[in-house]
Write a structure and sequence with these properties.
single chain, mainly beta, Methylamine Dehydrogenase, Chain H, 2 domains, four-stranded antiparallel β-sheet, 10% helix, disordered N terminus
Length: 360
Amino acid sequence: MSIFEELKPAPARRRPSKRVVIPLVILIIVLVLFFMYTNVDSDIAFVTHFVHPPEHFTYKGHSNYVSAVGWSPDGKYLASASGDATVQIWTANDGHLLRTYRGHTGDVSTLAWSHDGKYIASGSIDTTVQVWDATTGQIRTTYKGHTDAIFGIAWSPDDTRIASASNDGSIQEWNIATGKLIFRYGFVPIKAAPAGLNSVAWSPDGKKIAVGGQGQVAVWDADTGKDIAYYGYNGGLTHVVVWSPDSAYIAFGGSDNTVQVWNIMAHKNSYSFGGHANDVNAVMWSPDGKRIASGDANGIAKVWDALSGQHVYTYGGHAYFYPGHFTSGTAAAVNSLTWSPDGKRIASASNDGTVQVWGP
């Protein structure tokens, strides 16, 4: 090597082109402004949820919002109702579709399994309740006593009767075998039309029926139809009411963003759970009575201690953005919740068109 080669200057480094620098500067400015004018904790949560989405299984068999979901008593199957006018039955472990029921002519808004797991009752905006064989899809009874959409269904513990809640302002108790009306509960206004009813629940001991709609929750005697009591002053809407497994308490959620838990015999509010930021659409007691799961109109589900109201777990599988899921807010609202019979998993139905199965 000659001295001239040794003294040869090193080639000048290439400077980044304007095509690279300008977009990079703009990106940095946008990020700085974004973090300046948004909540940093929320930004971090967004990134965390996107990178590490909640662990769950998602069923995507419906073509419209999912209004209700129910676990079969043996724990093997889930049934889901939808705005696509179907009820679908599928295996809880892998989502294999077993049956699609198409008996309704409008959105299916509610469903419930019989306690023996043989039948499913489904209610629709077509104003009918249909009871059908869960294995074959064959119709057993079609009840046509209501004049408006059906929003709630409850089986009696002996599976001989059903109570159905309707937007026509009535709860109707009827015989499953014959479709014959037994009792009609409702409020008879002087001038105004009756307020629609959103939810009905039969106590596990078979003695009482609770109903929620506009205002307070009412409890009636299941055999005589007589009023027992009213619970929880509420000037808004009660979306859902459920019984504790021992029939000692009721829990209900509504438009005040809370879940209230009431002692039936003492007629006392045990506590109110205020962990939600929007309407509470779904509430369900765990099979052992120790926990309650609730879901809201923002797509958030929460699990909490049924005795103290202490928060245990938050699930955002319907609300968060992550690969394959970009729906949030009311478009991802949780409409229904159900615990598996063993209490280890929860299935949630949402406006995002999915049912998600997850563990608290």
